Fold each of these.
Amino acid sequence: MPKVFVGMSGGVDSSVAALLLKEQGYDVTGVYMKNWSKDLPGMKCPWADDLADAKRVAVKLGIDFEVWDFEKEYHEKVVEYMLSEFKKGNTPNPDVMCNQEIKFKLFFEKAMGRGADFIATGHYARVASPSRLLRAVDENKDQTYFLYRISEEAIAHTLFPVGEMLKPDVKKLAKEHGLHNAYKKESMGVCFVGEVGMKDFLKEYIDIKPGEIREIESEKVLGVHEGAVFYTIGQRHGLYLSGVAGEVNDGLPYYVVAKDLEKNIVYVSKNLNDSHIWTKELKLKDVLMRGEAKDVLVRLRHRAPLIKATFDGETLHFQNEIKRPAAGQSAVIYDGEICLGGGIIA
Amino acid sequence: MRMIYLDHAAATPVAAKVLEAMQPYFLDEFFNPSAAYLPAKKVNADYEAAKGEIAHAIGAKGNDIVITAGATEANNLAFTSISENAKVLYLKTEHDSVRNPASRFKHEEVEVDQNGRIVINDLKQKIDDDTELVSVALANNELGTIQPLAEIATLIRAIRIERLKNGNTRQLLLHTDASQAMNLLDINVARLGVDLLTLNAAKVYGPKGVGALYVAHDVRLKPLTLGGGQENGLRSGTQNVPGVIGFATALKLAKEHLNGNRKKYAEFRKILLDEVKDYELINKKHALDNFVVLCFDGLDAERLIYLLEDREVYVSTGAACAASKGVRSHVLTAIGLTDSKINGSLRITLGETNTKEQVHEAARIINEVVASEKARIHA
C-alpha cells in the first residue's frame, strides 16, 4: 500500500481528500499543520477548533492522525516575509509563500523522511505525470494561483484528490459519508488574518505613522491616513477623505494610484484613466518557471479570468491595457491548462 | 433520550423544578428590584429571600454572599481581597479561573500527591510573612479529588495566631472553589473554616452564568464592576433575579438529593469499574463518587471521545476549557502521570441524567470503542 500523508485543515476539501485516499486503498495518515495559533484583538484564532474538526474526521475514517508544529518556521518564512514586503510598500501574498515554504517544502520533506510515497492536500489542482501542475477541473475553485511556486520534486509526489471534482460534489460526498464539516464555512483570505482584515493585523506589527493623502494631479492634500503601508494600489475602499473647502464634491470615488513610502504620502485620483492604474506590460521578479512558452495565459488574482499575453522570461506583454495589480502580488503563467509558473509583480 | 451523557462536571441540564421556579421572573415578575413601586419591591424581596436560601445552604446569611455571573467571576472577585504586594498560594491542580487571577500577584503553586491531594507540609513551607491568600478547590474539576479543607484551615488559623504574636497584622485568608462538590458534599463554611467560598449554579442543575462568592465578615473585597452599587457595592448591575431564584431552588434540590446521590453514584462508579476492561483507574482515592477517570495507556483519549460521540456517548478528557486550547492537562501532569497516560485518560462524570441501565450500556460501548481502536493500531 503506498503511504501518503494528507494535510488536513479541518475543512471539507482536505477531509474529502483523506476520504478518497482511504477509499483508493492508500495507507493514509492525516496531519494537521499547526502554523499559527495566536489570537488577534477581536479575533480568536480558530486553530484548536480546526484541529478538532480535522481529528474528528480522521477518527471517523479510521486513519492515523498527527499534529506537526511549524509555527516557528511559518513565522520566519511567511509572516516575516509578509511584513517586510508591506514595509517596502508592496502587497505580498502570504498564501503563495506558505505553499512554497511550508506545505510543499517542510511538510513534504518531513513526510518523505517518514517514508511517504506521496503527500496530499485538499487543494483544487491536478498533477500530470511526472511533474506537471494542471488547473483543477472546477475552474471556479482552481487554486493553482497559490501553488505556482512549488517545486517539481514536490509536484511529482503530490496527490490532489479533489482536483478532479466539482466543489458541490465534494460537499455532497462529505455529507453522504456523514462528515460533520460538510457545510463548514470556508475560511476566507489569509488564514491567520481571518475576518479582522489585513489592516488590523498589520497594526499589531507595524507602527501607525499618520501621513497625508494627496490628489496626484493637483498635489492637493485631501485628507490623512494611518500609514502608507496599509494602502494598496488600486484600492478604493476605506479612504476617509475630508472634502476640500470651496469645491463641489462630485461624488466620484477616489482610488489609490501611488504611494511615497519615504514621505509617507498616499496619492489618489478620481481619474479612472490614470496611467498608474493601467498598463500594457508587467515586469516580474523572482520568476519561477517549470517550462518555456512565449504565448501564454496569465492570471493576476485568484479566480480572475485568464488573459492572453506574451512572456519574454522577465516581462509580460498584453494586447490590451490591464488594470495594474499591486506590486508584490503574483502573476501566474499558464500554457493551456498547465501551470508553468510565474513571478512576483515588480 | 438515546444519548448517554457522562460529562456532568462540564455542564448539567437545568432541573424541571428549577426552570419552573425561574419562569415567572422572566414574565410577570420582570421588574427591576431597585424600582420604587410595590410589585418591584416584591421582586426584590423574592431575590433577597433566594439569596438567603443560597447562603443558608452553606451555613451563611444572605448578606455574606455576593451573586456573580458564575464561578469564574466569583474566583476573580476573591482575589480582590488581597493587597498588591501580597503573595498568594494555590494548589497546582486549580482551575484557570484561580491560576490566572493569581498570576497577577507574587504566587507559588502548592504540590499535590499522586491522588491529587494537597501536600500539607509543602503548603506550610510556602506560607511566608507576605502570604495573604491560599486557594484550594474543595473538589478538583478533573479528578474529583476532595481536599482536607478543615485541616488546611487549622494550619492557617495557627499561622494567623503566630503572626499576631510576632506583630504581623497581615491577613491570611482561605478560599475554596466548591463548584464541583455541591452535589455530593454537605458544605458548611464554618465547618470548612474558609473565608471565601465559590459556588456555581451551572454544576447543580441550575442556570449557567450564575454563581456566588461567600465572604466572611472581616474580609474586604473590591468591586470588579462599578455602577449602581448593587450587591453591597461589590457587583453593580441589575440583579439576575430568575437566575438567583433558579440557583436557590437548585441548591435546595441538591441538599435533598445529597445522601441518595452518594449511594447512587458509588454504585454507578462500581459498575463502570467492574465492567470496563483493561484500564487504569486514575482517581483511586478521595474522589467524589461521580468522578471516574480511566486511563487507557497507549490509546489517544481524544480519538475515543470522537468514537464515543458517534455512539452518542459524551465524555471528556480533562476540563472542557483545557481541551479546547489543545494543551495537556496541568492537573494530570501535577499528579505525576506520564504524557502517554495523560493522552489516554478519559474523564467520566456521572449525574442526574444517568440511569443504571445507561451505565451498563456505557461500559459496553466504551469496551467496543477501545477494542476497535486497539484493532486499528495493530492492523
Amino acid sequence: MDDLDALEAQSVFILREAFNKFDPIGLLWSLGKDSCVMIWLAKKAFLGRMPFPAVHLDTGKEFPEAYAFRDTYSKEWDLNLIADDCPPIEEVDASLPPASRFAARKSLGLQQAIDRYGFKALITGIRRDEQATRAKERVFSPRGVDNSWDFREQPPEFWDQYNTDFPPGTHVRVHPLLHWTEVDIWRYIERENIPMVPLYYAKNGQRFRSLGEIGITEPINSDATTIAEIIAELEATRDPERAGRTMDHETEDSFERLRTMGYL
Amino acid sequence: MSANTKARERAFPIVIVGHIDHGKSTLIGRMLHDTNSLPTGKVEELQTSCERRGAPFEWSFVLDALQLERDQAITVDSTQIWFHTETRRYVIIDAPGHREFLRNMVTGAASANAGVIVIDAEQGVSEQTRRHAYLLHLIGIPQVVVAINKMDLVDYSEERFKAVEAEMQAYLQEIGLEAQVMIPVAAMHGDNLAERSSNMSWYEGPTVTDALDAFPRAAAPIERPFRLPVQDVYRQDGRRLIVGRVESGQLKVGSDVTVWPTRRTAKVTSIEQWAAPDEATEVKAGQSVAITLDDELFIERGHVLTLPTAGPRSSNALSVKLFWLSRDPLRHGESLTLKLATAEYDVVVDSIDTVIDVGDLSRHRGNEVAQNGVAEITLRSRSDMTYDLFHDIPALGRAVLLDGYQVVGGCIIESGGDIETASRNLTAVPQSVKADERQAANGYPGAVLWMSGLSGAGKSTLAMALQRELFKRDINVYTLDGDNVRNGLNRDLGFSEEEREENIRRVAEVAKLFADSGTIVISAFIAPTNSARAQAREIIGDQFHEVFVSADMSVCESRDVKGLYAKARRGEIDDFTGISSPWEPPKNPDLEVNTGELSLDDSLVKMVSYIEQTILSNPK
C-alpha cells in the first residue's frame, strides 16, 4: 500500500462507520475538489453507488461552470441530489462583515436542510491542513442543538473508535478527509482521474485554488493547466490555500466566528 | 531528496507532550520556523497582532491560532501541524499539557508513530511529565525522544542536563519505555532543534530533527494472523458483501475463513471493488475491503473473520490495563460499554485489581480509579468477547470504554487466559433435568420446525393443521406464529431490515427454550433472508429443521388472504417481502413443501412423514 492507498482506506472506513451509525445521513457537496473526491470515495466504500443524498447548499451564486458540472455529474455519478436554495441574505446576522455575512447564508441553508430532511449526521469535506480552526476538529464532531461547535468540550477520539452515540438533539458532522492535505487531494484526483470543475485549471494566467461563490472567491495567478502542474505549484508555494477566500481574512477572528456559528 | 519525492510519502505522525509550562508550543513554533515550514506571512501576521495587543511576540502563538487560546495562553486541544525536514514530512500532534485536558492528549497521541517529551531543565521531571510518559507507553507509542528544554535558563550547564537526564531515564526504565535519545535544547533560540547549538559544544548527539528522521515508520502488521472485524454487511444485486478493514495479516480468494464468535467456516469467493484498475485476489492489513463468501452464514457487525488455523481469543471476562478519563471515578460494579474493534459489549467492572500511581509507580489495591488514573481491572460480559493480546495484534487488544454517551476511558489487554475457564459457567446455570432425560420420558426429542415462505404461501394454515395432527398423537406441540408474536413479545418492532432480523432472533431464542423443554415447536414466519435463517439455525442448533413452504409469488398473490399484496402493490406498505423488500428463498432446506402444487392434505402428509422419519423414530 502506498500513502494514497492508506488515505483511501481510512476514508472508506470512516464513511462506512458513518453510514452504519446514522440514518438519515447526507453528504454536503460544495462542487469543489474536496467534496468531489469524497463522493468518489463514497462510491468506492459502497461499491458503485452512494446510498445517501448529495446535498448542495445553493446560494444561486456559484460560477456557471460549477452549475454545469453539478448537472453533468449528478447524473453521471448517479447521485440522489438535493439542491435547495439557501435562505436570503436578509435573514443573516447583519453584524458580520460583508463576505462573512454572505458565506453565513450557507450556515442557514445547512440548518434548513437539517430541519427539512431530518439528517442526524452530515458528511463534509473539511481538512485539518486548510485552516488553523479546522485543525482542531474530530472525525466525528458533535454539534449543539443550535448547530454550534464547542471546541473546548470535544469528546476524546482515539484508536479509530469514533463517537457515534449522542444524546437526542445532537447533530454530527463527519469528516472523512480530515487527515488529507491539499497535495494529497490533487495526487488522488490525478491517480483516479476524477473530473473537476474546469475553473481549477489555469486560463489566461489565473486559476481558482479554492472554489467558492462569485464575489467572495478570488483566483490566484497561475499557469498550471494540468494536475501535474498544479501539484508542482502547490509543492513550491508557501501561500495558504484559502488566501482567495475573502471571509477568512476580513477580521482576525471572522472565520472562527463563522465556524462556532455552524459554518463548515 | 527533492520536494517532489517528499510529497509522495505519507507525513510521519509525531506527538509532542510535556508539562504545561515546559515549553512545548514554543518548541514547535520555533521548529516550524527553523525548518522553513510556515506559510508566507504567518510570523509577520502574528507579530502585528501582538503589537496591536501590546504583548511581546511568542513562538507558541504560531500554534495557538485561535483568539480564545491567545487570551487564555493555553493550547486547548490537540492540533495537527505539518512540517518537513530534509528527509521527510511530519505531522505534529500538539498535545496540550494542562492536566484537565488529558483526554485531548490521548486523542492526539494515539495516532502517533513517535513521541517527543519536553522537560524544563530548571524544573526537572514533574508529576505531569511522568503521567504523559506513562500514557505514551500505555497507548502504544514505541519510540520516544526527550528534549530537555530551556537550557538557556541554566547557563547551558552540562551538569544540570545530566541530572535531569538521569532522573528521566530511571523513570522510563521502570515503565519499560526506552528513550532513543535525550537532547539539551533552548527552544526559544532554536538551539539543537533543527540547528546544532554553539552554546553546548559538550553535547555530541543528534538535534531533535536528526533524531526524528532516524525513527522508522510503523508498518502494517501483514505478517500477523489475519483479522477482519466486520463493519457492516451490504446486500447488492442478490449478493451479500461483508465489509471492514483488515487489521492484520492477509487473505486470498479461495481461502477458508472462520467467523467469531459463531466459529462457522466458509470460503472467500470474491473481493469486490469499484473503479479499481485490476481484479483483486488478496487483501492485506490496512485495506478497507468488501468480500463475498460461498455460504450465507450469520454474520453481523462486531463479528471477526480469521483464518481457521489462527483464531483469536474468546472469553466473557477480560483483565485489562485501564486509563480513566471521566471526572467521576470508576467504581466496582459499574456497567459500561466496551468498544473493541467493531464490536460493542455491555460489561460490568468485576473487580478493581490494582491501582497504579504513575508518579512513583507504586501499586496498591483500591475501590475506585480517579480521573486520569491508571489501574488493572477485570471486566465481565454476558457474552463471549473476541479479542487478542495488545502486543500480538494491537487493533484487537485495545478498547474504548463508554458510560452512556460519554467516552470515559481506554484499555489494553495484556493477558487474558487465566481467568477464562474460571468464569465461563458463572452466568449459565446447568439444568437439573438433562435433554436426554426429557427425551427418554417423552419418547422423542424437542425440535423446531422452522417454516419459511412468502406471505400467502400457506405457512399458518399448514402449521395449524400440523399442530392439530401432532396433538392428536399425544405429542407436546406448540406453534409460534408471526402475527401472534408481533402482537406481544415483539410489539416494539417494526418491519425494517434490522427490526425483522431482531424479530427472528427473538423468535429463535423462544423456540429454542420450547425445544429445550421437550416440545416440538412449529414456527411460521416469513424470515426473508438466508442470513436471518442462518442466525436462527445458529441459535437453535441441532434441533433446527428448515421447512420451505414454497409457492410461486403469483399463487400467493392470487390467494392474498389478508389483502396485503393489493396494499403493497398500491404502495401502501413499506418493506413488503417479495415486492418492496428482498426475498431470498432457502437454498438447502431440510424439507420443501410446494403448496402451489400440493393440496393441504398432501402437504400435511409430507410434513408428518418427515417428522416421523427424522424426529420421532430417528432422533437427531
